[in-house]
């Protein structure tokens, strides 16, 4: 296991220099994460909201959670005291569903990738952590000049990669992949040619990441593909699968950023 990608709860109880980022969120209630943060969070943590901080404005195409503007995202990080080389630990309470989005965004933009808290907020509490309810003040840092996000594609890039033999991986639950149910997007089913590797297979019910053998079992023969393109409903939980691939040493996979919600918009 590449533990350099993970943080353990005990680290948050000891003296550390990392900036802590709370990424808790609920797709069913966009105000829930901020409310949870106000009721209790890791001391010194800043809160980043999926819709407001980790995504851009929704348009006709691009999906439900488009990538944020790189410059605005860099400014958001700077307000939390995060520069390109800052040590960051990120957490949520949803088995990496939202913390992995921050991990992917920072890595894609050339920042030092944050480590993700194994087990999330519940692991911090279980380790004896005392929640804080104060809103911390953060010493801002200068906003760096940044380029564009890397290692992602739009629908045209997806078609090109599939034509070139890339394996497409759908990260949603099996029922959504099969088209049996679709609670969010207007069309059910999956992109033709995609296989299914639900993002929940990366961790146990406790939110603790599976060991290397568990990760390999999750991927199976898909690990042998020369090119991998990963998607989900809107480019968020696909990042959990991309994090899993990074744990196994595969940093070459591509995110279809708009994912199924973008694909649907062209039908």
Descriptive report:
The chain is of the alpha/beta class and 267 residues long. The chain folds into 2 domains: 3-126, 3-Layer(aba) Sandwich (Oxidized Rhodanese, domain 1); 152-264, Oxidized Rhodanese, domain 1. 31% of the residues lie in helices and 11% in strands. It contains 11 helices and 10 strands. It has a 5-stranded parallel sheet. A 5-stranded parallel sheet has the order 6-10-9-7-8. Strand 4, helix 5 (99-108) and strand 5 form a beta-alpha-beta unit. Helix 5 crosses helix 10. It is globular and about 50 Å long. The model has no long low-confidence stretch (mean pLDDT 96).
What does the secondary structure layout of this molecule look like, with pairings?
Layout (H helix, E strand, L loop, with lengths): L5 E2 L1 H5 L5 E4 L9 H8 L6 E2 L2 H4 L16 H10 L8 E4 L7 H10 L6 E3 L2 H7 L25 E2 L1 H9 L3 E4 L3 H5 L16 E2 L15 H8 L8 E4 L6 H10 L6 E3 L2 H6 L3
Helical residue percent band:
25-40%
Q: DSSP strand (E) fraction?
A: 5-15%
Please outline the major beta sheet: 5 strands, parallel
Low-confidence stretches: none
Q: Provide the spatial order of strands within the biggest beta sheet.
A: 1-5-4-2-3
Q: State the CATH architecture of the largest domain.
A: 3-Layer(aba) Sandwich
Provide the number of structural domains.
2
**Global shape:** globular
Q: How many whole angstroms does the radius of gyration measure?
A: 18 Å
SSE pattern: EHEHEHHEHEHEHEHEHEHEH
| CATH third-tier fold name of the largest domain | Oxidized Rhodanese, domain 1
Q: Specify the CATH homologous superfamily of the largest domain.
A: Rhodanese-like domain
Distance between the termini: 41 Å
Question: Total number of β-strand segments?
Answer: 10
* Continuous helix count: 11
